[in-house]
Fold this protein.
Amino acid sequence: MARLHPEIYFFGGKIAEGRSRMRDLLGGKGANLAEMASLKLPVPPGFTVSTRVCIYFYQHGSSYPKGLTQGVAKGIARIEKLMGRKFGDRKNPLLVSVRSGARVSMPGMMDTVLNLGLTDETVNGLEAVSNNPRFAWDSYRRFCQMYGDVVLKLKPEKKTDPDPFEELMDRKKALRGVSQDLDLTVDDLKELVAEFRDLIRRRVGRDIPQDPQEQLWEAIGAVFGSWNNERAIAYRKFNNIPDDWGTAVTVQSMVFGNLGSDCATGVSFTRDPATGEKGIYGEFLLNAQGEDVVAGIRTPLQISLAAGRKSAERNGIGEQERKAAQPTLEETFPTVYRELLKISAGLEKHFRDMQDMEFTIERGRLFMLQTRTGKRTAEAAVRIAVDMAGERLLDRRGALMRVEPAQLEQLLHPQLDPKAKKQVIARGLPASPGAVTGEAVFSADEAVAVVGAGRPVILVRLETSPEDIHGMQVAQGILTARGGMTSHAAVVARGMGKCCVAGCGELNVDYAAGAVSANGVVIRRGEYLTLDGSTGEVIAGRVATVEPTMSPAFEKFMRWADAERRLGIRANADTPNDAKVAREFGAEGIGLCRTEHMFFEAERIDAVRQMILAENAEQRARALEKILPMQRADFVGILKEMAGLPVTIRLLDPPLHEFLPKEEHEIRELAPKIGTTYEHLKKVCDGLFEFNPMLGHRGCRLGITYPEIYKAQARAIFEAATELRSQGIKAIPEIMLPLIGDRKEFDILAGEIREVARTVLGNKGARLTYSIGTMIEVPRACMEADQIAASAEFFSFGTNDLTQMTYGLSRDDSAKFLYTYIERGIYKKDPFQELDADGVGGLMKIAIELGRKTNKKLKIGICGEHGGDPASVKLCHRLGLDYVSCSPYRVPVARLAAAQAAIEQRQTKREFKDI
Ligand code: ADP
Ligand code: MG
Ligand code: MG
């Protein structure tokens, strides 16, 4: 049959001009309606006007391309013929829905109008043909409301504000002493229609058009217009959806779920979206229309008997009572239920993915109104992928590609009980996932004290710094008002696998008063606070959490991932406990063990300070003697935990002033404690002052100027390794020098370390496997990589610093303007979150090529925060790195991302071969 118009795609009868792959043009909804029609499923006939018309509409002052009016008229005529009703007919009127639908679903952003075509005249016709006045007036009541809300824009901007029509409904119900809309009489509904229209006349100054054609075009215009309402624009910005995609409009014959008790409407999933369990899962309402299910007007009923029984059991309802009060679709409509099962299975097989469907039952007949890929939790995503591979709907690689790597992190932390009530007072950045509850405290010391007393805490700070580490270590969660996703709080918390909400600008943190407030709610010291690090929500009071479980499906899925990936996966871990967690999550080594955290621990910090205050090498060596046994014990702990696997230990990196107090009163308090005078301490502090510490006296520069420090650290490492060897435990330390920019720096320090090795290990040294390598984090090191690699045994890209230095952008100060850069399209992503492929990646490429040129055996990894970011992991795969290292809780994320990178590479190779 001939097309109605180049931009109109008809479906119904024997025609389906669109397909699911045309979602760019038809929107997700329109494309899949066409696909369902082409599969001969029961879809009410209709047509979709393409997104191109929406773009045209905006570019041409809200007008339509040539011939569209006639095309739409022909489309309506075709529906009329199929349905045996006429649009606007006073005896047997056709009613339609006008539905919006973009390429990707934008929930709640755009609108749909149902029952369009009803007027004071046609409503009488509908009443007569259906022989059901209640149905006719219920439909008219619904139409007036939706038309008023959507087309005449009376829907309140904010979700929390009451809908004016709902208010009138509620008043009517109260007046009649009924609680359900079904209890309203025909006269009540007639009155409501009159009241709705009064309201519309008062608020808009005109009535709902009594000409169905006019209604149709106003509704089409309103749907196109809704693409650019404020809500939709804000949503797109937030979700990176281009403004020029536009929405499609689908005009479709109505089917009625509100004709009586042999009618219903519902939504269902082909598998449980929370757990992934196979089997139809969903809800429906008897005698209702689509929007009622979502709106929660009545409590919906379960579709399957199994789910119905389970839910009744949960609510303590006996089987007899359930059967009477909450019959399932399986019981009420057995034939329809079987048909729905068949259609579900067919759609799932067709789309090879879990589907989320809308349906309506009109007088015992089933109609499908929508299908799309169903949203699901991480748990469900993994289970569904594994099950579908088992069912041969996917192969293993296909299954691995189905799960978003970042989603996996959700599975490893406790989560808020989805059934619990919560009072969200503010929203910050979801810096580190998990869900935790604890007493609000405002300093690290306070955190230690309260936790010491056996109570959980949330550490609330404007921002955190290394001095807060001991508090962060004991806190359940960390909340900051300032800083971005790579602020100190965020990075450290992720490293610790600790829940963190960062940069929550809505917070007022008042240290003096010991209180934090947001949006009118005040939480005082000792009062409970809950954080959701996966959403950034800050919640007043306690909320129940649920523990994560490693399902057999998860284990299997991760084994599949391991079989595909080429990249090794290590973890960044500073403590034996972190190392243990990392190993459980599948880490194959430690890629970064930072030693400065060991220096910060309460009993050691004073010895560290004495070392800094030392006036000569001898004094310094003496102070280091005190620290040595403690460091050795740390290394024993971590090397033991990682027995048989490599552990990269970075020698001291931060500038020394980070270990000294900043505030005047702190200096005064500390001096006597460490056996010195205020004046001396003050002088040392002032002497260590740097204008730009990031580029100051730190990293290997410390080792060059104070050789004793690195030598002592090396000794602790070798002694730890020998101690373990005597216990029959294999330790594989890899000593890493930070901030190297020149081969000579490396040669001097490596020489000194090897000297220590000879002293400690004696001639038995040959039996200890150790290596010395460098972090590559200064651009110069990338350009000198051939030189450095001639001496170094491994490279590890420190991409936090490398990014800072490549961009000339301070990670701690850039939050203020970075957002603007992203908003104005200069940077696509925060380069501290996702590795910059062109600039930083370009330097890495040079370093890898040069390095491997002079050292064929050079091992290359990455230990920056990027090692846990899926897109960055994929880049590392393409660059040919040997491994990535990330925080323990991201290890499974990295394992999956690495597998996907390998699969994607194989696919592109195959595509090239095909050409
Ligand atoms: P949303 O994108 O908000 O889900 P929809 O266009 O899917 O909007 O429609 C809202 C509700 O109305 C859904 O429950 C849908 O199933 C129902 N609906 C839409 N069109 C029709 C129709 N032609 N007949 C019956 N119900 C419909
Ligand atoms: Mg829908
Ligand atoms: Mg660094």
User: Anything to note?
Assistant: Residues 358, 370 surround magnesium ion (ligand 2) (CB under 6 Å).
